[in-house]
Amino acid sequence: MTRLLLIGPPGAGKGTQAARLAEAFDVPAVSTGDIFRANLKNGTELGLEAKKFMDAGEYVPDSLTNAIVHDRLQEVDAAGGFLLDGYPRTTEQVHELDRLLLADGTALDAVVQIVADTDEVVARLLKRAAEQGRADDTVEVIRHRMDIYEQQTAPLTEVYGSRGLVFTVDGLGPVDEVTDRILVGLAARGLHAVRPVEAS
User: Fold this and answer.
1) What pLDDT was estimated at residue 28?
2) What pTM was estimated for this model as a whole?
3) Per-residue DSSP letter, 77
4) For 31, which of 85, 87, 123, 170 could close a Cys bridge (C-beta 3.0–4.6 Å)?
5) Of 3, 89, 124, 181, which one is the catalytic site residue?
6) Active site residue 128
């Protein structure tokens, strides 16, 4: 029963690693982005509420994000563990997650922080933007997103770091190598994969 949190800047390959780690530990990857999209698609009450903020170009409030994540973690497939991607993003969300897990008598086992050279990540995101025809992803916009990420993430790593949960992994290099680095780090903390990850 492994409960992980994966954090990392845009373009560091976090989504790819989340999927691979979820496979390795046989737990669902719980992404707030995916949850919002699923709730919107299914027209749930939470989804419709979130849509009001998203349509107005505003951040979905913590209270609603917390409710949506809580709802997802109550599903059967998350009973044996999960991998969180994109939540928590604020210290208030950290405290709410603490409350949710405490109510279930559980806690996070580890926080994997993927780091990557900023210039390398910017170059990677610019390449992806060009391939996908996303003209609005300029150097300035990407660097602004990186700055916001740093501002949001620093308090989280401080909180979780004080609990001895954070370990850092270089996100640059071949996908398989990054996955191996993470698995080695988790194994050192007594968290062992239950199935092999297929080579990319």
Assistant:
1) 96
2) 0.87
3) G
4) 85
5) 89
6) yes
